[in-house]
Amino acid sequence: MNILVIAPHMDDEALGCGGAIARHVSSGDKVHVCFAAGRVYNHRFDERKNDIEKSHVLKAKAVLGYAEHVFLGLKDERLDASVQDIIIPLEKYFLKIRPRIVYSPFY
């Protein structure tokens, strides 16, 4: 069964539903994680810090055992700007993997 975890930022997948991810993986489900945005620090994007966080994603992925991850590349602090800015790229990924269960943050 395909499972989709939508994480606004890197680390939100582990902090928000790491236990659920591990349970699904141990049950044989294929878990996909979609990171909506990189992170800004003091309202500025820092590529070096984001690269470090991306390396942490790989470590968390290895520990949790999920199948794959993608980065939508949306702008942090603007995730509420336009629903279309989020829905269109997310819909493409959703249609690609066709998840049976979706974990998503509340508003």
Annotate the secondary structure layout:
Layout: E1 2-7, H1 12-26, E2 30-37, E3 40-41, E4 44-45, H2 47-64, E5 68-74, H3 83-97, E6 101-103
Parallel strand pairs: 1-2, 1-6, 2-5
Antiparallel strand pairs: 3-4
Describe the structure.
By secondary structure, this protein is α/β, with parallel strands linked by helices. Helix content is 45%, strand content 26%. Strand 1, helix 1 and strand 2 form a beta-alpha-beta unit. The longest helix has 18 residues. The radius of gyration is 14 Å and the shape is globular.
Number of strands: 6
Q: Please give the count of helices.
A: 3
| Coarse shape | globular
| Largest sheet geometry | 4 strands, parallel
Q: What's the average pLDDT?
A: 87
Distance between the termini: 26 Å
The proportion of residues forming helix, as a percent range, comes to: 40-55%
> What structural category characterises the helix and strand content?
alpha/beta
* Cross-sheet strand order for the largest sheet: 5-2-1-6
**Uncertain residue segments:** none
Order of helices and strands: EHEEEHEHE
Rg for CA atoms: 14 Å
Oligomer: single chain
* Fraction of residues in β-strands: 25-35%
